[in-house]
Write a structure and sequence with these properties.
Organism: Didymosphaeria variabile
Strand content: 15-25%
Shape: globular
Subunit structure: Homodimer.
Order of helices and strands: EHEHEHEHHEHHEHHEHEH
CATH topology: TIM Barrel
Bound molecules: 2-phosphoglycolic acid
Keywords: Gluconeogenesis, Glycolysis, Isomerase
Distance between the termini: 20 Å
Helix content: 25-40%
Pathway: Carbohydrate degradation; glycolysis; D-glyceraldehyde 3-phosphate from glycerone phosphate: step 1/1; Carbohydrate biosynthesis; gluconeogenesis
Number of domains: 1
Radius of gyration: 17 Å
CATH class: Alpha Beta
Number of helices: 11
Structural class: alpha/beta
Strand order of the largest sheet: 1-2-3-4-5-6-7-8
Number of strands: 8
Enzyme class: isomerase
CATH architecture: Alpha-Beta Barrel
CATH superfamily: Aldolase class I
């Protein structure tokens, strides 16, 4: 198998020049698991600051990208602009954008295609609401979100999937290791069926939603959990413990 452990830090709309610089200084000084791939996603205003200050070996991700290379699209940033600036990853399809900004599956898929074609890695987020979980629709919701992307993107080698149950994001209510592992295994099964067995073997599937340094070591032990997308805790020194939780 040998999927490299991956930890992303999603700062969301948090931070200032001072606090982002402090987080970066902490990461630069920290002893990090050499086998972990680490990517941080600050607000777009701080992407270049992060890239300039962050040590080599830690990558920077945008939190969003548009699906056109350039033009009259006020407020948007393209994959080409990110790539040229040394920003090598982007998040796409985070539930906060799906819910608050009403991004649908087709738009998420179109942006994923544009990002991959533009040479970026994509942290593709998916996840169900509490209502959908209680209705027994979790797997159906998540695979429908992913299928929209599979219809447009054939090469999944630069996609990392982040499974983030909406009810666990920012709530302190983490999915149990069994709940997370069950959905991760189902996503891998879906990859095998709808994409390829190679994609099923190689694609990293991250868990996100109230990950802390306390729950990460247990979650990291699950067979189909290949890392984390961390929100709130990525702004704290404990982010370093989460990065190191696979070797803990
Ligand atoms: P959280 O956010 O860790 O603060 O729950 C995770 C995410 O939304 O990516």
């Amino acid at each position: 198998m040998g999927r490299q452990f991956f930890v992303g830090g999603n700062f969301k709309m948090n931070g200032s020049i001072k606090s982002v610089t402090e987080i970066i200084d902490n990461l630069n000084k920290a002893k990090l698991d050499e086998n972990a791939e680490v990517v941080i996603a600050p607000p777009s205003l701080y992407l270049l600051l992060a890239r300039e200050h962050l040590r080599k070996g830690i990558e920077v991700a945008a939190q969003n990208v548009f699906d056109k290379p350039n033009g009259a699209f006020t407020g948007e940033i393209s994959a080409q602009q990110l790539k040229e600036s040394g920003i090598t990853w982007t998040l796409i399809g985070h539930s906060e954008r799906r819910v608050i900004l009403q991004e649908d599956d087709a738009f998420v898929a179109s942006k994923t295609k544009a990002a991959i074609d533009g040479g970026l890695g994509v942290i593709l987020c998916c996840g169900e609401s509490l209502e959908q979980r209680e209705a027994g629709k979790t797997i159906e919701v998540v695979t429908t979100q992913l299928k929209a992307v599979a219809d447009k993107v054939k090469d999944w080698s630069k996609i990392v999937i982040a499974y983030e149950p909406i009810w666990a994001i920012g709530t302190g209510k983490v999915a149990t290791t069994e709940q997370a592992q069950e959905v991760h295994a189902a996503i891998r099964e879906w990859l095998k069926k709808d994409v390829s067995s190679e994609a099923a073997d190689k694609t990293r599937i991250l868990y996100g939603g109230s990950v802390t340094e306390k729950n990460s070591p247990e979650l990291a032990k699950q067979a189909d959990i290949d890392g984390f997308l961390v929100g709130g805790a990525s702004l704290k020194p404990a982010f370093i413990d989460i990065i190191n939780s696979n070797s803990a």
